[in-house]
């Protein structure tokens, strides 16, 4: 007696990633490497002209669908359409987002008592508030997909933080470092919350990377080994995310440095910071 014919599985849907801060630097590298892996892309950045050109170039080179979405994530008006896109669950015209890369950020520094309050607010709005709101938009959709039986696709969020948040005292970068520390701790907590749904959240803690944000550091004469290539940051973080690791420090030199930082007495770090400020 012949076995009943099995219903064919539906064809695999193209994976979709949304990358913020995608026009340059690490964000652009995420866009290129995800396109290389076959992801359709939604690219978010403030500069619409640069974003449009990049989207067209990536689409032509990798043969994937790329949608530019110009938005200033530091404002409510800019945040709203990106939140709306992340809430898409596939029931409408837009496919759901499988991977959110929270990369957009700014690295303003200066002595805290001399920083403009508006500039402090703007940095926190982009580096912290936007990161939380975007993750909050997409994670319920991803959890619901798992509960509905979608087990064929890796789902989750990558949050780009910084090793600057791991330093006990960061004169000249107090607000930036504290914001990144918040993102790291929050991200690792959320990773534990959603892991039972097989949704992965990974926080990335790079050291120095050659981007527009670090131009001042690059001109200061730091040796080449102090910088981790953008492609290495992206490659290591994508591997860590796929494996479900809650955090990753790209680059061997910074893996070693982060380990040392954990064991240094905070009093020693603070005293050293006071001497070099």
Mean pLDDT: 86
* Separation, N- and C-terminal Cα atoms: 83 Å
Low-confidence stretches: 263-277
How would you classify the helix and strand content by structural class?
alpha/beta
Give the strand content. 5-15%
Question: Largest beta sheet: what is the strand line-up?
Answer: 3-2-1-4-5-6-7
How many extended strands? 7
State the order of secondary-structure elements, H for helix, E for strand.
EHEHEHEHEHEHHEHH
Helix count, DSSP H or I runs of 4 or more residues: 9
Largest sheet, in brief, is: 7 strands, parallel
Estimate the helix proportion, in percent. Answer: 40-55%
Rg (CA only): 20 Å
Dominant shape? globular
Overview of the molecule:
This protein is α/β, with parallel strands linked by helices and 277 residues long. The chain is 47% helix and 12% strand. The protein is built from nine helices and seven strands. It has helices at 25-36, 48-62, 76-86, 117-147, 174-194, 215-219, 230-242, 252-263, 266-276; strands at 16-20, 40-45, 66-70, 99-102, 155-160, 199-204, 247-248. Strands 3-2-1-4-5-6-7 form a seven-stranded parallel beta sheet, with helices on both faces. Helix 1 runs parallel beside helix 2, helix 3 runs parallel beside helix 4 (117-147) and helix 4 runs parallel beside helix 5 (174-194). The longest helix is centred in the middle third of the chain and has 31 residues, at 117-147.
């Amino acid at each position: 007696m012949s076995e009943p014919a099995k219903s064919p599985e539906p064809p695999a849907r193209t994976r979709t990633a949304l990358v913020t801060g995608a026009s340059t630097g690490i964000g652009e590298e995420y866009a290129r490497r995800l396109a290389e892996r076959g992801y359709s892309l939604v690219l978010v950045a403030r500069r619409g002209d640069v974003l449009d050109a990049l989207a067209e170039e990536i689409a032509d080179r990798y043969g994937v669908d790329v949608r530019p979405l110009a938005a200033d994530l530091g404002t409510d008006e800019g945040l709203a359409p990106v939140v709306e896109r992340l809430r898409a669950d596939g029931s409408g015209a837009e496919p759901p987002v499988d991977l959110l890369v929270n990369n957009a950020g700014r690295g303003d520094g200066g002595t805290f008592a001399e920083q403009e309050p508006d500039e402090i607010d703007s940095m926190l709005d982009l580096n912290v508030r936007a990161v939380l709101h975007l993750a909050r938009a997409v994670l319920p959709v991803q959890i619901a997909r798992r509960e509905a039986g979608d087990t064929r696709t890796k789902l989750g969020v990558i949050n780009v933080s910084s090793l600057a948040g791991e330093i006990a005292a960061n004169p000249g970068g107090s607000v930036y470092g504290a914001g990144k520390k918040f993102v790291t701790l929050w991200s690792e907590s959320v990773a534990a919350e959603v892991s039972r749904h097989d949704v992965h959240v990974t926080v990335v803690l790079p050291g120095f990377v050659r981007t527009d944000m670090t131009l001042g550091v690059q001109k200061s004469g730091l040796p080449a080994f102090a910088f981790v290539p953008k492609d290495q940051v992206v490659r290591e973080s994508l591997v860590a995310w796929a494996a479900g690791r809650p955090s990753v420090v790209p680059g061997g030199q910074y893996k070693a440095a982060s380990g040392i930082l954990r064991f240094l007495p905070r009093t020693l770090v603070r005293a050293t910071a006071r001497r070099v400020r």
